[in-house]
Amino acid sequence: MIRLLGAHRGMAALLALLMLAGSLLLAGLPRALEASLDKSAETMLRTSPPLTTALTVGLDGTYSQTAPRSVDAITQANASWRSTMPPTVRGILDGVPRFGYETRSKMQFGRHRYLTLGWYNDIDTRIRYVAGRPPGPIDGPKRFEISLSAKPAAELGIKLGDTVPFEGYQAVVSGLWEPLAPDDVYWTAYHSGAAKIVITRPPLAQEDDLRIFGLASGDALASGELWLNYSWTFQVNPAAVTARNGQDVLDALAEADHVVRSGPRGVSVSTGLPFQGENTTLSTGLGQLIKEFLDRLATTRALMAVLLGGFAVACLGTIALAVRLLGSRMHGALSLMRARGASLPRVTTVGGGVVALAIAPAALVGAAFSLLVSGPSLPILLLGPVALAVIAIAYACGATAHAHQQPLNERRDDVVTRRPSPRRIALEVLVVLLGVGGVQLLRSRGLGDDPFMMAVPALLTVAAALVALRVYPLPLRLLLHLAARRRDAAPYLGLAMAARAATGATLPVLTLLPALAIGAYGAVTADGLATAQRLAAWQQVGAEIRVERSEGIPADLVERVRKTPGVDQVVPAAVGKTHAEVGFTGRDTAVVAVDLNAYRNLVAGSPLEIPPAPASGALVSSDMAAMASFDVTWPEQLTVQPKGKIAALPGVDTTDLGLIVLPALPQHTNTLLISGDAAAVKAAVPAGTVIRTVDGTLTEITSVPLTSSLMTGLRVVTLALAAYALAAVAIMLVSGAAERSRALILLHAIGLTRRQAKGMTVLEIGPVLILAVLAGLALGLGLPTLLGNGIDLSAYAGLRFGDYPIDPVTPALLAGGVAVVALAGVYLGGSRAKSR
């Protein structure tokens, strides 16, 4: 075996290289994908609102007989809640205690002025007193000491030492404080209303309500007579949720909800009675976030399984071609062994052993290199290289045994075409039926976690290759018939050689067609995702540049922006929310006042579609279109007359809201829709103005770790498939080089020219190559339609395939490039064969 390996070290090196690259991709790409999945989960949790990812246990103390009545009691309850959470939930929580209580409702102390009292366990470490001192214990049953944030207190005219009466109680201002870090998430998310005045306007009200927070003594507030709401907030450690424990966490959250509703096991923190939990609730958005992440995770894994499945088919086919070529090179030596009396198992062992010596170390090295890829250690990923090596070695042993199972003098080496056996026909029919049936199942059920569903696209490509092989002789016969009428014999001889080689084209077509089909599908998917992401960016922003100011944009600023060099067009708009007087209870709606015709001109040439403006009245969502008219209070008190329907408008969030599009109201402008240079716009507007651009939003969408890794994986697999397709063509060319050289040398003796030799070589290999390229490209372009919603990538951009046209340019260029390079190699190979 060692001698044979050394004698054919070139082919052995090629086999090792093919196996090394295949093993590295099959083991390394999923590892990198898992790392991106983990990073995506961490990024999702880290960038989501803290109270959305946190688990907040709430207790309405109004009717509870066991509510905590002191700081020590609520502190003990915090430990009790944490300890009774399911182990999986406890494992993802950080160790920071966050708990406190507030008065159940706001209490009025003046006209449209309200006060909320509260206490939080860690607020003392996050504030600095600028006057007075912290609030002390209760001074009488109806009297509290409180401290206020200095800035909102000054805005409301409340000073140190003032007494604030509210609903039969009195609150004495003992101190004024300010946050140590006002921009910290503690103040912007967890307690957003504690250091500022909260302004709200009830429906149909003409004046805003102003609410201020008062910090009270924890024990004084808990032991008083005010109704309180208690909360214990447990924040999630973003790095603790991964792609592998996401489902366990989701299941544990349901168990945690049951635990909270039934109350923690143990003893009440206040009365010694069992904690009933009749008024306890668990509030969190973590479950929904993880569910969305798991949906995206499943789609990502399934898509990569489809692509890697197609790559595995192409890789195996290319390796099988190389093994067959090596077997033909070793055929003489193994036949001599057989003639000298070596048994068939002995010959099979030698032939398979040579292949194993080339393949096994390469598979191990490829698997070892994959460990250098950043990602979690998953032993299951090593099954890919192992399976690839085992199948290749098994094929080598089977091919060797088949080639030498008959004595040398009983084998035929002529041009007789063998009929396919009934077993082969039955197997081909089974593969085709499985491919077609699998596609129907996949369209109706989706990929899911079913391994068969993930293998359906690769199985479909194999089925298409088998059908193409059965159809292939028909056009070849027609070409032969046409070539026979020509006076030049070279084309006929080339096509005759192609027809003779048709019986051996099974493995090349089974390699090339899946490689090109899955490669084309990968290119279509990558282009489709890029198109969808860019369209999503346009829909989120609504224009090339979007400028927003909550306090409004005056007319002089609009003109200044319009006259700024680099700014092409400016369309003012008023965007907000209101309560429309529709139906019995009314309808919360989004309102946009904009000149739709000017807006259409602004986004002309972009992916956005803006409806034309009606001659009069407004466009409204379908749930309000039946009304003859109705009133709204924003942007001013007016009566809306529906004159058409509109479902959505780019840049406007209508989640759980209706939509009203009014004619432009310049006096209420708070948004500018602009086309031009973003840097020039930024320089023209005041500081603090919100500026959003399509390019910036697109960067945010594509920079998500999971999305960027998926796009990278799609491109890597597509290029790898193209490379293996070229390698397969090269092996095909080399495989028939010896026989082709003999034929061309004989023909050269009777006058064959160099050009004719090249043409004959192209006509011999070109038909099967063109068949594989055209069939693979057609199947790859058709896979998104064939698979339908079975592979739903809308989670990456909000759009499904079919919502926008598929661009065939990239996959066509890819397939065409493979064909041109391959035919160029065949053409040059014909010249070299003639020279030999």
UniProtKB/TrEMBL annotation:
Belongs to the ABC-4 integral membrane protein family. The keyword Transmembrane applies. It holds the Pfam family FtsX. It is a multi-pass membrane protein. The chain crosses the membrane at residues 302-326, 347-372, 378-404, 425-442, 454-472, 492-524, 716-738, 759-783, 809-830. The keyword Membrane applies. It comes from Microtetraspora malaysiensis. The lineage of its organism: Bacteria, Bacillati, Actinomycetota, Actinomycetes, Streptosporangiales. Residues 717-833 form the ABC3 transporter permease C-terminal domain. Keywords: Cell membrane, Membrane, Transmembrane, Transmembrane helix. It is found in: Cell membrane. This is FtsX-like permease family protein. Its main location: membrane.
